[in-house]
Every structure is written in C-alpha cells, then in structure tokens.
Amino acid sequence: MIKLGYNDIVNKIKEEKGLSEEEINERANSKVKQLSYLISKEGAVHIIANELGIKLYTNMFKKRYKVNELIAGLRSVEIVLKVMQKYDIREFKNEKRSGRLATLFVGDETGSCRLVIWDDKTIENYFNQLNEGDVIKILNAYVRENNGYKELHLGGNSAFVLNPENESIGEVMQQKASYKRKTMERLEANDFAEVIGTVVQAFEPRFYTACPECYKKLNEAKQCNVHGLVKEKTMPIASVVIDDGTDSIRVSVFRDGVEKLFKRSYEDILRIRDDPLLFEDIRKETVGKQISVSGKAIKNAMFDNMEMNASLIREVNATDIINELMPKSI
C-alpha cells in the first residue's frame, strides 16, 4: 500500500506552492485545533493540500524516478543512482529463509537513501565489483520505510546495471533536509538537529551482540526478536563529548558511524575489545577534531542535560563551516 507521510506531503506543498515548512506546520496545527483535535497533523496536511488544489497521488507510477520522489509502497521502480558508500555483506537467517544481504548508501541530485540487495546473484555478480562513485541503474525495485527513512530494496525480480552507457549523476544531495542546524545551548529534547563542535573527550567503545539484518540486540536466547535465529555479529557503540562554545554534549555513535568517527576498519575496532590499550592512539587522534553530528537530541533525566544519538557524522574544518554559512550567489 502506498502511503504518503507527513514529511512527504509537506515537501510536496513546499515544492508546488512555495510555502515554508514553518508556515505549513502553523497551518497544520491550526487545522488540528479547528477540528477539535479529532485529526492528526498528518491528516491536517492532507486537508491543507486538498484546499490548495494539490493532487498528492498523481504521477506516482511513472517509469523513471528520482530519490525525492520515492514513496513507501512503490513497486517496479526504475532509478539511476551514484554509489556513495559500500558496506559489508551480511548473513541472516530466520524462520522463513536464510541468505546474504548487501547494503549501499546511494543518491542522485535530489537526495540520498539506503539500498538493500537481497538477491544472491546480484550480490555475486555485481556487488563485489562496485566502487564508490560508480553509477548504477536499478530496475524493478521496491520502496520501504525504515525509522522514518525511505529505502530501496532489490529482490530476485530486480535488475541491476553497473555504469550504464549514457547515464550520469551530478553532485549528490546529501540527506540533510530533516536536520536543522542548532547550537548546543538551543537543543531541546526530541529535536532532529545538526550540531558542529570540537571533540573534547573520546571514550573506549563498548560492544554488543546484534542481529546482522536489523542491528538490534539479541535476546537472552541469542535470537533476534524480529528475524529469529541469525548469525550474530558484534557491533560497537562509541561516545564522545563535543563542545561548540555554547555548551557541550555527549554523543553516542553506532555501527558504521564508529568506523567513520575513528577512521578505523571494523576489524581494527573489534581488536580494541581484547586489547583496550589500542584505543589510546585513536583517542589522541580523535580529541581536537571538528565534527558535524546529525541525529536526535535526548534529555538525560538523571543528569538533567542534553545528549545526542548520531545518525550521520562527518569531519569538518573551519573552511567548510565558513563556506556553509556564506550566502549562495544568485
């Protein structure tokens, strides 16, 4: 079933009517109040779109899509993408099936998303040949939603073309739209925000036994509550304290983000579990770095302070920050 979510509808109103996100949110809140709180904000923006004459479900079954047009529930999707990041192949096993899956982070000029490959032949014939920067053409994919993000999935009926002729992708738009830049002193609980600061402390990573498919911690029976019996994988969690001059916060970093933060491979990070002294060099390299963290702000009730769970993390420098703050030329 194809279902447009709140953000999907807001983006469509912004594109077609030029309204700001703040104005749409205000209208949605007003509509909810007007209707005596008997509808959700998602229902409110449906009504607002209708009042503005916006047809939400037209042109949703065309042949070729862009990332910003992807809607959960779409099937038979054709799309051309650039490979931004390539992750390890993982094995999974549940009550219904077992096999391997491969994951890429991909994008085009309109946005970026996760691409999950379930088909063993595609993994065998194409995945190992892929490099970051390659262009791929996908046929007959389907779209799912995972924790609020759109994902492309390839199954046995999907097709994959590596570096197709006469196809190119310009500069990929990174997935930043849902994160608002904030200073740390202005963070509030449940904000989806981007903060930039200097690492002032770095802590030795902790490890947990996880499902290789969904990354959730295994239960006491060493099984995944969602995928059943799986081949367990040890996953790292790291934390750092960053400071931006207005305040400092503790940031928790998960899975692949730990590799990016510490600039070490998964195998190198696992060695820290057996030999903690290996972390001392990493700590020295990490403290003093300027990083951008995008994620969800959380209030730690015990210590009455803000913390953040990182979804995206990248190293920045003073030049990057100045360039991002400078107004774009017309």
Short description:
The protein is an alpha+beta fold and 330 residues long.
Description:
- The strands form two sheets. The chain has a five-stranded mixed beta barrel with strand order 2-4-5-7-6.
- The two termini are 41 Å apart.
- It folds into three domains: 46 residues, no CATH class; 99 residues, OB fold (Dihydrolipoamide Acetyltransferase, E2P), CATH 2.40.50.140; 146 residues, Beta Barrel (OB fold (Dihydrolipoamide Acetyltransferase, E2P)).
- With 330 residues, it is α+β, with helices and mostly antiparallel strands.
Strand order of the largest sheet: 2-4-5-7-6
Q: Under the CATH scheme, which class of the largest domain?
A: Mainly Beta
Run of helices and strands: HHHEEEEEHEEEEEEEHHHEEH
**Percentage of residues in helical conformation:** 10-25%
CATH superfamily descriptor of the largest domain: Nucleic acid-binding proteins
Share of β-strand residues: 35-45%
Task: Please give a handful of descriptors for the protein shown.
330 residues, alpha+beta, OB fold (Dihydrolipoamide Acetyltransferase, E2P), five-stranded mixed β-barrel, 8 helices, globular
